[in-house]
Each structure stands twice: as C-alpha cells, then as structure tokens.
Amino acid sequence: MKGMTETSPVSYQTTLQSPLRKRIETVGTILPHTKAKIVKPGTTEILPIGQRGELCVAGYLLQKGISVYHVDLTHRILGERSENKGSDDP
After folding, report:
1. Contact between residue 1 and residue 16 where contact means Cβ atoms under 8 Å apart
2. What are the pLDDT digits (tens) for 56-81?
3. 3-state SS, one letter per residue, for the chain
4. Do residues 31 and 13 touch, judged by C-beta distance below 8 A?
5. Residue 87: inside a domain, yes or no?
6. What is the pLDDT of residue 82?
7. CA dihedral sign of residues 39, 63, 29, 14
8. Contacts of 79 (CB under 8 A, 6+ apart)
9. Cα distance between residue 50 and residue 22, in whole Å
C-alpha cells in the first residue's frame, strides 16, 4: 500500500493568504486535480466527516507504480491505475 511518501511530496497546502486559524489548525486545502477520502483502516468504507481513519489520495501527484508486496490490497483501496498517470480514484 502507498504511504504519504508517494505523494511527491504534498497533497494539501495553505498559503500566506489563508486565514491564520486555517494555517495553524489544518493541513490546508487539497491541491487542484487531486482527490481524497478518509476510509476505515483496512477497508474501502468512506467515513463521515470528523471521524478518524486512513487518508487515501489520488491524482497526478502519486508516484507511478504500486507496492509489489500488497498488489491486491493496493488495487482494492486505490482502484485500478492508468499506465500513464497516478490513480484517478482515491
């Protein structure tokens, strides 16, 4: 399964124009052309807002390729990947 090190290197960001509260209390806003969801760990079940879970990110920012150790789990969590780009379905 991929970790945040495969997001090259960020998926969320704040700016100097962001309100101070947003800059110090959040991870920011998801980057353009990127998708994310929070799932129950070990599943693909999307959790309601405010619940803790595992962050799944998809888009151009992911490294090409998947884990050779957990291919089935990676495909189940992230979905099938295109040969030419990162996953389009978090």
Report:
1. no
2. 888 888 766 555 566 676 677 666 55
3. CCCHHHHCCCCEECCCCCCHHHHHHCCCEECCCEEEEEECCCCCCECCCCCCCEEEEEECCCCCCCCCCCHHHHHHHHCCCCCCCCCCCC
4. yes
5. no
6. 40
7. positive
8. 58, 87, 88, 89, 90
9. 16
Residue 37 domain flag = yes
Say which CATH number the domain at 56 has. Answer: 2.30.38
- pLDDT (tens digit, 9 = 90+) per residue, 2-20? 456 666 678 889 999 999 9
If one counts the domains in the chain, the total is 1
The number of residues in the chain equals 90
